[in-house]
Amino acid sequence: MTFVKSRYSVSCGIIAIVLAVAVLLGWYLKIPLLIQVLPTFVPMQYNTALGFLFCGAGLLMLNLNRRVPASIFGFLAFTVGDLTLLEYVFEWNLGIDELFMEHYITVKTAYPGRMAPNTALCFSLIGISLFLGGMLRKRPISIMSFVVLGGFVVVLSSVATLGYLMKVETAYGWGQLTRMALHTSVGFLIAGSGTVFLGWNNFAERFNSLRWVPLLWSTSLLFISMILFYANSIHEKKLIRNEMNSKIDALKINFVEKLDSRIRSLARMANRWKRNESFSHKGWEFDALAYLNDYSEYRAISWVDTDYKVRRIVPLGGNEGIVGLDNKKYKNRLDTFKKSQFLNLPLITPVMALKQKEKGFLMVFPLVGNERFGGFIVAAISLKAFLDQIFDPTFQKNFSFKINEMDDLIHISGEEGFYYEPFWRTSRSLEMAGLSWDVEFWPKKHFIDKTSSPVSIYLLLFGALTSFAVGAIWFLILKERLRVNELKNLTKDLEVTTAKNNLILESVGDGIFGLDKEGKTTFMNSVAGKMLGFKAEDLIGVPQHKMIHYKKPDGSPYPVTECNIYKVLKEGNTQLISDEYFWKKDGSGFPVEYITTPIMRNGNILGAVVTFRDITERKRKEEELNQFAYIVSHDLKAPLRGIHSLSEIILEDIKDNDTESVESNFQLLKDRIKRMEVMITGLLAYSRAGRNQNKIETVDVKNLIEEIVDLLEFPEGFQVFCRGDFPVLATDKIRMSQVFQNLIDNAKKHNTGQKDGKIDITCVEKEEYFEFSVSDNGPGIKEEYFNKIFMMFQTLEPWDKTRNTGLGLALIKKIVEHYGGNISVNSIMGEGSQFSFTWPKVTPYYD
User: Fold this and answer.
1) Are residues 37 and 154 located together in one domain of the fold?
2) For residue 127, is it within any domain?
3) Where is the CHASE domain (predicted)?
4) Is the pLDDT score of 53 beyond 90?
5) Pair (39, 168) in one structural domain
């Protein structure tokens, strides 16, 4: 099974190759811009460029379905990354770092030529996915490796790139090891996304589902934000610790300077003492008081004689008990005195409880001059006051500390436990003039809060919210996509159903329209439109009653509240109505039969469907039937009455032996019977004319007329003319022949006796029909009889004269109207008559 090609993945592969070639050229041609972008940035190592070359080539091979080369390039990328990771883990040097190139740029590089560990990890991950893709073809594990491993590479490279943008070094460097270069992070962002998109395309193509995409995106973004949060937090902690160390280093310098100034103050006093051994008590006391005023941490300054006893002390008030104090009784003091005397250096005693009832220490300065030892100048210094001089209020506000002297805790300040953790602890040794303190520092909470920024938290929150938002948006997009696909399928099904329904609606001979519960038209089939003369857009959305049902058959207004259709919409009962009118767009009306069926859902009336048919023809046929029944019952009785009367007369003639009258009356009786027979035959022909349809065949109308003329007998001198072009069409030849034969025969009968009798037959082609005319030069017909002559048994002359039943023109009219045409007559008395009828070009089929 072959991979589905991804254009984006191909582009990523090409970009990775171009990046690799550019950096390799940079190393060979010594172009730093290609190697490290900026002089202060980390260079892309030579092996890193080779890795990108392998990854880009592998992506291209997979997209081209060259599985073996893809596996080889994937294996090479994995090997480069994995061997480098082994070097870091086991602290090996496998000799691969500078195998091809001796590196001359080593900015922020732990080992020359060695790629960063996060770089090596990324090559291992992409290499594995390319190798699996080539070896396992399009199996689920290989496809998922593209997405998962490629996605992890995208996460790592995104963090590194953002680290450069945010100047957070811990985001692109692990510990003190080599950092990932800027263009390396961008290269992995491209190569990793190319791997992901290749997997994405094939996953979607094979499994036809992208439901995992929201989880992948949101998880990746959440990982990126968490890693950035961690990296930025570590970065901030390092900055805080560096600031703390700089303040502590400054404090240590301050300690040395402060202590040195105190020592020098005693040295000046000692020098004055040595220059003038007879220095008066008052003068020394004045000198000591001056120093006490200058240094607030001094509690007393005394002179200790060569026997280590206190002989003088300033101030004396409150210190009377110290005069005569024998320091030989205190081991720590005695050791310091002796050592100071031996070394002839100022020394400081360990911290002790001073006679002034507070912790402090003694600063001892030996009086040695002219090879004579004159005792010691001793300053009693308050520990707390001295520390306040060293650790200014700002420092003490921000930091806590504790001081140990020979493993003894001599002072502690601040909150010991809150930030007292290994990361924050830092120690300094303060040593001078025999003083040896180990001081441990840690920051206070408000210093951390003050120097920390909320960027890390904001990053985490932003990342979490963004991952959730992206995941949610993707989920909604995919959900919408699935919904759209489902809607498309439903729409297709609906279109098929609608097409079927429309086909049914359009194939039905009845008009159909739908109404909503307010009586507005919702749909209408074309049959309804044709019958009503409206287009669908004329009626849809408009109250139906006021458009087509606003008048009763007699023309009086039809209130909507009385409308039977309206009642269905209100009551929900089906109504069948057959005695109302619908009104066309042109204002004309026609009788209809309609049924209104309510549309119900859960007992609620939603609307109705009205199915109707034009019953004009039915009404006409009913009228014809009524007329036919009347004529039959009336006109057939006339010959029957004549037969009955003649029968009685003949009976009387027989009784009277009037043979001549009997014979004459029998002839009249036969004539009445003949008339009766002709009338019945005509009625039979008339009744069949509207019911049966003969075979449709090709008719040459002109030839048909000529055949009819040949069959009929015309008097000498009688002329029949066919003028104009006559069509050849497919129609009912028998019925058309009946029409022409009756019209021509009728014209001939009424021209009998005229020497110059003439019949003209013409044809005019119209858009949908032909108009034929049969004209004669007979006596003509009065206008008052134009309609009457087309009625059954209506004749203008008596039977005895013409032997005409009066059914010919009625039969013609019925045939012509049966085929959708019409017939009319025009006549001028004394000049002749013209009968015109229309015949369709396409003969309708009636079952």
Assistant:
1) yes
2) yes
3) 305-390
4) yes
5) yes
How sure is the predictor about 678, in pLDDT bands with cuts at 50, 70 and 90?
Answer: low
Element (H, E) at 382: strand 372-382
Strands 408-413 and 399-405: antiparallel
pLDDT for the residue 262: 84
What's the token pair of residue 32? 């730093």
| 310: in domain | yes
Q: Is the dihedral of CA 556, 560, 566, 571 positive or negative?
A: negative
Condensed to tens digits (0 to 9), the pLDDT of residues 279-337 reads: 566 777 888 888 888 888 888 998 898 898 988 888 877 787 888 888 888 888 898 89
Tell me, yes or no, whether 554 and 605 share the same domain: yes
The DSSP secondary-structure symbol of 320 reads G
- DSSP at 357: S
> Which amino acid does the sequence have at 497?
T
Pair 186, 92 in one domain: yes
Exposed (0-12), middle (13-18) or buried (19+): which is 819, by Cβ within 10 Å? buried
Give me Rg for the CA atoms of the chain. 63
- Considering the domain architecture, whether residues 87 and 197 belong to the same structural domain is answered as yes
Domain end call among 365, 388, 411: 388
**pLDDT tier at 675 (50, 70, 90 boundaries)?**
low
Alpha carbons 19 and 836: distance in angstroms, whole number: 94
DSSP letters, 788-822, are GGGSTT--SS-HHHH---S-HHHHHHHHHHHTT--
Neighbours of 215 (CB within 10 A): 12
The chain-wide mean pLDDT, for the chain, equals 80
Average pLDDT value for residue range 48-75: 89
Which residues lie below 8 Å from residue 427, measured CB to CB, with a gap of 6+? Answer: 438, 439, 440, 441
Q: Is the pLDDT of residue 827 over 50?
A: yes
For residues 746-774, give the mean pLDDT: 84
User: Are residues 573 and 667 both part of a single domain?
Assistant: no
**In 3-state terms, what secondary structure has residue 109?**
coil
Rounded Cα–Cα distance for residues 686 and 683 (Å): 5
Tell me the one-letter amino acid at 76.
L
* 371 lies in some domain: yes
The answer as to whether 242 is a domain residue is no
Closest Cα partner for 28 from 80, 112, 87, 101?
101
Instruction: Decide if pLDDT at 418 tops 60.
Output: no
Phi/psi at 670 (5° precision): -65, -35
Peptide bond into 315 cis (omega under 30): yes
Domain residue limits at 36: 7-209
How much of the chain exceeds pLDDT 90, in percent? 11
Q: What's 179's DSSP letter?
A: B
DSSP secondary structure code for residue 784 in this structure: G
Q: Is the dihedral of CA 401, 403, 408, 409 positive or negative?
A: negative
- Cα separation, 468 vs 450, in Å, equals 31
Residue 647 makes CB contacts below 8 A (sequence gap 6+) with 669
| Cα distance between residue 739 and residue 810, in whole Å | 11
Q: Report the relative pairing of strands 310-314 and 832-840 from DSSP bridges.
A: unpaired
CA-wise closest residue to 6 among 204, 172, 282: 204
Residue at a domain's end among 667, 686, 705: 686
The two tokens of residue 10 are: 């191909």
> What is the Cα–Cα distance from 410 to 203, expressed in whole angstroms?
70
437 in Cβ contact with 430 (< 8 Å): yes
Tokens describing residue 359: 């912790």
What's the 3-state SS for 447-468? HHHHHCCCHHHHHHHHHHHHHH
Instruction: Convert 616-629 to b/e letters by CB count within 10 Å (16 or more is b).
Output: eeeeeeeebeeebe
Token pair of 585 as six digits: 């767009």
Cβ atoms within 10 Å of 262's Cβ, excluding its own: 24
CB 444 within 8 A of CB 236: no
Spatial distance between the Cα atoms of 648 and 656, rounded to a whole number of angstroms: 12
Q: Which residue type occupies 348?
A: I
Q: Read off the tokens for 808.
A: 């010919």
